[in-house]
Design a protein that fits this description.
181 residues; alpha+beta; HIT family, subunit A; 2 domains; 5-stranded antiparallel β-sheet; 4-stranded antiparallel β-sheet; 9 strands; 29% strand; globular; disordered N terminus
């Protein structure tokens, strides 16, 4: 099922099919396609300079895209998800753009978990939940991130439950979570 089609550069037409990104790449012999993160697609993208394009999350950090910020320091940033699985669903990201969480340098990754712990404790105080769960998928945005999701039962931890939240509710909830930091 094709969800979105766009042409960010002359050489690329990117199709988001289900959760997989497929690159259709023009060549003299016609179109060829490669799954995202295949070595051939990564080489072509790196050579094209696309790798240096700011991610959605980098635009949020810089303020180009608004968000409901929870906590920020010199290396990390956290904000409420606009399509939360449950109220209080927060994303934690490194400010450094790294696509895959296990490609993050050890000290930055370990610091990200400690930053997440601080945010999760504030979420737990602000939101009625049994626990704050952790989810890492990494296919939605090409910028490593951790989902902190308040939940009552294990069945709550599925992206199928995600739905849009209104701005006023997110603002109130962000203020409540921030008050516990």
């Amino acid at each position: 099922m094709i969800v979105n089609i766009f042409r960010p550069a002359r050489e690329f037409v990117i199709f988001f099919i289900s959760v997989f990104t497929v690159y259709f790449i023009e060549s003299s012999s016609g179109f060829k396609f490669y799954l995202k993160n295949s070595s051939k697609a990564n080489t072509i993208i790196q050579d094209s300079g696309k790798e240096n394009m700011a991610t959605l999350f980098t635009k949020i950090i810089s303020g180009e895209i608004p968000c409901h910020k929870i906590l920020e320091d010199e290396r990390y940033f956290s904000f409420l998800d606009i399509r939360p699985i449950n109220p209080g669903h927060t994303l934690v990201i490194p400010k450094k753009e790294v696509d895959y969480i296990f490609d993050i340098e050890d000290d930055l990754l370990s610091g990200m978990w400690l930053f997440s712990k601080k945010v999760a404790r504030a979420i737990k105080k602000a939101v009625l939940c049994q626990r704050v769960g952790i989810m890492v998928a990494g296919l939605e945005v090409s910028h490593a991130h951790i989902h902190l999701v308040p939940f009552q039962s294990i069945g709550d931890l599925t992206f199928a439950r995600a739905k849009s939240a209104d701005d006023a509710s997110l603002a109130r909830l962000a203020a409540e979570i921030v008050s516990f930091l």
